[in-house]
Amino acid sequence: MVRILALFSLMIVALFFGSGVFKSDTRKAKQELADVNRAILVEEEKIRVLKAEWAHRTEPETLRRLANAHLGLTTVRIEQIASIEDVPYLGMNLYDEEFEATPVNYAGTLRRKPSALAAVEASAKELAEQHAALEPIEYVMAGPGRRAQR
Amino acid sequence: MTQPHRPSVHIPEGFETDQSIGTSSAVFLDGRQFRALEVRRKRLFIVGFGFACAYLLMAFQLFNLTVMSQDEKAAPVRYVASDDQVYRRDIVDRNGQLVATNLMLTTLYADGREILDPGEAARALLKVFPSLDFEILQTKLNSPRAYIVLKHGLSPRQHASVHALGIPGFHFREQPRRIYPKGALVSHVVGFVGSENNGLIGLEKSMNADLLGSERRAPVELSLDLRIQYIVRDELIKSMQTFKAKAASGIVMDVNTGEILSIVSLPDFDPNDIDGASDNALFNRATLGVYEMGSTFKAFNTAMALDSGTIGIEDQFDATKPYKVANRTISDLHPENRWLSVSEVFMVSSNIGSARIAHQIGANAQEEFLGRLGLFDRPQIELPEIGRPLLPIKWGPTETATVSYGHGISVSPLSITTALAALVNGGMKIEPTLLLDRIDEDYEPEQVVTEETSRQMRRLMRQVVVQGTGGKADVPGYSVGGKTGTAEKAIGGSYNRKALITSFAAIFPAENPKYLVLAVLDEPKGIKSTHGFRAAGWNAAPTAGAIIERSAPVLGVRPNAEVSPFAMAEEYAAKLASGE
Questions:
Q1: Quick check: A61 and B270 in contact, CB under 8 A?
Q2: Which of A145, B244, B316, B379 is buried deepest, with most CB atoms within 10 A?
């Protein structure tokens, strides 16, 4: 009787001890979870600030002012808008002597006959060589408030 | 430890204990010895019982603390740092551009009971915030209240600076604050919130319940396109400056869905800084203001005639001389003094012709037709600021005549945009909306005019731009159609010839309209380049044209083939070939 009681008490003590250990582990894990959650909130808040900042910086009037100051861009004119459907059909006149090697003509031909690609590529290579022979242009990064200098 | 089957010995009183009995036997005592032993045993039992109780209590408490404990007060942390705050949903435009969001901002406040020297505290604070007023600050700090707000929205640097002052009684509080990163661009539409985080005007007010929530949710998507909104606002500002107008408003609407891509009212305000906004700036002219729209109404009159089935587009009406109705004489601004067909009445914007058409149709039919287009109701849109139309009290012959050319009836620009959209989109009545993808599958659009009438109206509106009063709205490459409207403002019961409301309602592409652009100018002045004229054709029409020219590429509306670079190149080549 006494032995059983003693054993039982021991078990209870062990149980209490064990649960105490688990409890402490749980608390640690919860603390960690709370820390991570708080860190997430802080990060989220940072993201929100950045998003708001981005939205503010990309306000159209600001962009227009910056584009005017640094890029020299203007409003698109209607005459500058076209699509590939607008390209006139020129037929297979790539090898004609009178074929004018303009991008428009190339595109118009290419659309109808992919095999003309080789001829275009050869011509493009030639153009590239001519281009390489030209004097290189130096670009200077535009500083704040200054226009890009050539 | 006791052993079983021990011999028991009884020892009577006065008997001397024999050593031979040994300690292995249970001993029974009599008399004094026995009683003394019993007392000890009882005491031992009481003490033992006390200890047992104490251990039990400890065991129970141990069990309670380790296994059962759910006491939140004992919990070490709160799992979400800000779970008591109220979230307000973000608002974005149709492309996902952020329009309204919340940021945690620091508020500086003082506890009046802790402030030792208000003067010194105020002086110290001025070092960080030079713009604050010393007197006001000192008066504030003198108050014994526990929560004296001194400054909202501190930057981290200001926060640190105030902290470094080391003045007792200054405290900080983190609060979410509504931020509008695009500033004045969407001022009237989105509106703003008050200090209690409740919307006061605009969508912030009308959608307050939907925007608020106990958790973060997906943003509200508007039908607005900020790029178009910017273009409209920019062009209206330019026109206001050029024509010295007092105010302006503009709307761009998808005529098939009713989605509003842009809605602008000028002057406007920065929703981040509403203290500086006047009532004039807060007033939404595009939806709350109601105006006599003038000749723009002739579009409705003409559609009514064509839709009645009794009047054809080539039917002639007498516009040879001013038309007398009751005690009023109706005349034209630029009299043609001849018979005009229905299409000519529309193109030259003849008041006489319009009044005669209306009279032939009849007052009842006119009232019914305009009501069917929704011009008598407040437009259903997600804004709290919606103007109620001002209608004639009785619908007599005079009213029938004046309403035919847009006088004696006042509607909001939004209202006229919505009704016009129905005229040109094939005759379907639409509901304007500011929200994207408003799904309403059960909604069956009501056919308010026939498709044929709608087709004729598009053609007529195109002609107004090609040959009529709206020439300055034309944009080569985009077939723009439209109608001018010039109305004198009724001030103090009589019309003022100098104070005009000019408007231009444009559709493009006119053959199959996708978008409707309405530009309204309030009291534009005649200038040199308009030869002193101030009618809509000189100011509102070019404004609408400029808006279309800039927004069509953004909206993906393709220009006609004749202005493409290839067509121009061909033209140039032909010129070269002919030796010019």
A1: no
A2: B379
Query: Which element (helix H / strand E) includes A133?
Result: helix A117-133
**Please, where are the H alpha helices in B362-512?**
363-372, 397-404, 413-424, 451-466
CA distance A134 to A125: 15
How big is the CA angle at A47 (ends A45 and A50), to the nearest 5 degrees?
A: 110
Task: Report strand pairing: B323-325 vs B247-254.
Answer: unpaired
**B567: contact with A, CB 8 A cutoff:** yes
- Residue found under tokens 């035919």: B404
Local confidence band at A135 (pLDDT 50, 70, 90 cut-offs): low
Residue B449 — φ and ψ, nearest 5°? -135, 160
Instruction: Give the C-alpha distances (Å, rounded to integers) separating A39 from B80, B83, B280, B426, B465.
Output: 10, 14, 45, 56, 61
pLDDT in tens, B340-375: 999 999 988 899 999 999 999 999 999 999 999 999
Rg for chain A (alpha carbons), in Å?
37
Confidence of residue B79 (pLDDT cuts 50, 70, 90): very low
- Best probe of the A interface among B2, B68, B69, B563, by most A CBs < 10 A, is B563
Nearest to B66 among A20, A45, A51 (CB): A20
Q: What is the CA radius of gyration of chain B?
A: 42
* Residue that the structure tokens 């390489």 belong to: A132
Q: CA–CA separation, B44 vs B50, rounded Å? A: 10
The one-letter code for the residue type at B65 is L
CA–CA separation, B29 and B43 (whole Å): 18
Give B116-134 pLDDT, tens digit per residue: 888 888 888 888 888 888 8
Region B496-501: what's the mean pLDDT?
Answer: 84
Residue B170: burial class (beta carbons within 10 Å; 0-12, 13-18, 19+): buried
CA distance B496 to B498: 5
Tell the burial category of B169 from Cβ atoms under 10 Å away from its Cβ (0-12, 13-18, 19+).
Answer: middle
Between positions 227 and 286 of B, the ones with CB within 8 A of A are: 227, 230, 234
Q: What is the DSSP letter of B219?
A: P
Q: What is the three-class DSSP state of B467?
A: coil
Alpha-carbon distances of B50 from A8, B331, B358, B431, rounded to whole Å: 21, 115, 108, 84
> Rounded to an integer, what distance in angstroms lies between the CA atom of residue B234 and that of residue B195?
31
